[in-house]
Fold this protein.
Amino acid sequence: MTTNWPRYPRAATNFVDAYANTDYRIPLQGEELDAFYVARHDHDSRLELLKQELLWGAERGLTTKFIVSGHVGCGKSTELNRSVKEIEADPNLRESLFVVPYSVNEILDLQDVDYTDIAFSIVIGIYNRLERLDLSFPQDRIQSVVEWINDEVERFTTTTLGAEVEVSTDFGLPKILSYLNVLGIRVRGGGSYGSEARYKVKKRAPELRHLVNRLLDHLKEISGMNVLLVIDDLDKLPRREALRVFRDDGPFLTLLSCMAIYTAPISLMYELGDSPSFGPYRSYPVPMFKVMHRNPEDGYYEPDILKMMELVYRRVVPDLFEDGVVEEMVKTSGGVVRHLIKMVQDACLYCATFNRQVVTRDVLEWVVNEFKRDFSRRLTRADYIRLKRIHLTKDCEDSDQVWEYLQSLCVLEYVNGDYWYDVHPIVQRLIAEREPLPVD
């Protein structure tokens, strides 16, 4: 594929800077969002639809809840960051929506989460947002949280971060974190697990929701705007916790007194997409880049391949790659943005370490072998048989393994007119190496 690529302003001209420009673990934000972001072909219309719904909801005081779903690593967090930036740049939305964006993964241990954890993460999210805006936190609302805890569980003590902590009326984020640990909520940084306290809190779920809603309503009063929660990284929840939050505890998220955008894993949409659990939500999927057609005979999908190549060249100049290598990287990534950027970073690290002048095909092969090793560690012979069937039929079986295949990116969902599935190109290589595998 021959294209004359422009020199993008932030593109690195050496492998050290290229390594820094390709940190695949951090969603784009701030200046990097302007420098490195590339929109999908069908995304602009989706973003405009979501913005229109947010505008109507802000004007009319609605409490609509949205789910942004997609594969891990497909760019959901970046899209959310861009949406928040678009909202703050839009005069109509900026004056009518008070946006509270935060990552639940930065607050909670995602291995054991339910609605009580989400509730108190919202309190911390609001606290942090107001702190960043130099606005005073409504401490009378925190006082009501303290009183509610004291009324229910009287006086707790628990060992937190190596110190004895008691519920008291002192304010501030450290004390809020102490409350969470008292309640048995697994906060990042440690803390004991008070299952009895958590059980007592759960018994009064409506009161907890009312408490959070009072806080949200007060935020509306002091800001004069509708509130929009943007809670990222819920798509990283393990299966049990994801089902608990969105299915078993679903009413809590849907009955909050504000607008909200939650992320959800593609595997959850596969399992619960047609269930009543998702009835209250408006769904906005973040699609994969479509690097291939459903029918292999139709070859690759060139428009999205060019988009993904632009993702690379905005970060690293073409001179650091042998001809055709970036295009091959894109095809090998299967359209997973995180995998593509990780491939580039791994290749830059290899070249800088071993004094290579450009990323060649043999360097790419080394990178792919690293990916193959990571995939192969979690797959058995039975998995290869199931995955080969998915590759042949372009459809997922109705089995427990599908959740894991989608979550681990062994299987990818695409949209080319309709929804279909295929096995990650690197996993396809593993299948080919382990043939013959009989498939009915």
